[in-house]
Specification:
The chain is an alpha/beta fold. The protein folds into 2 domains: 114 residues, Double Stranded RNA Binding Domain; 43 residues, 2-Layer Sandwich (SHC Adaptor Protein), CATH 3.30.505. Helices cover 31% and strands 27% of the residues. It contains 5 helices and 8 strands, in the order E-H-H-E-E-E-H-H-E-H-E-E-E. Helix 1 runs parallel beside helix 3. The chain is globular, with a radius of gyration of 20 Å.
Amino acid sequence: MQINIHGHSMIVSQRLEKYVRNKAAKLDRYLPGIEDVHVEFTRESSKRDALKSVELTVRRGRTLLRVEERNPDPFAAFDAALDKMYQRIARYKGRRIDRKRNGAALPEADLQLLEAEPLPIEAPPAEPEPKLVRIKTFEVVPMSIEEAIEQMELLGHDFFVFMHQDDGRIKVAYRRKKGGYGLLQPEK
């Protein structure tokens, strides 16, 4: 398991890095097969006591689990993010194990979930399985990224699916939380 720690607009001290590595290394006990853990600290303003946000992302095969937490103390922010991650892992494991009990074939990697240590927290009550409640169809016309963003703004949506006029591939334009826009495009 590889652990990557980065800081944006702040320097991650050796003490904080050691603390994060020790705590993050224990994630593999509760979710075997984790390939990498990415921890990103961001200071949200130049003030000394400004909020620090922590983004914790765990990758296991094709599955990504991600949580975010904010606190002026980076240690407290990381601990809160780690608690959220334990809850996310519990929900993920619960769904995978439920599928096994219902007779669905699981990949070999998911069979390790049955033998993993129980989580150090109480798992929240089981949530009902999400179900598809609406299917929407729409016409896809070739357009530029600028036209897609303009259309998204006109509709008042946070994202817009479109076909790029240059390469004919489906892409998604979206509004970012911190301002500006982003573009999702599949790899070739």
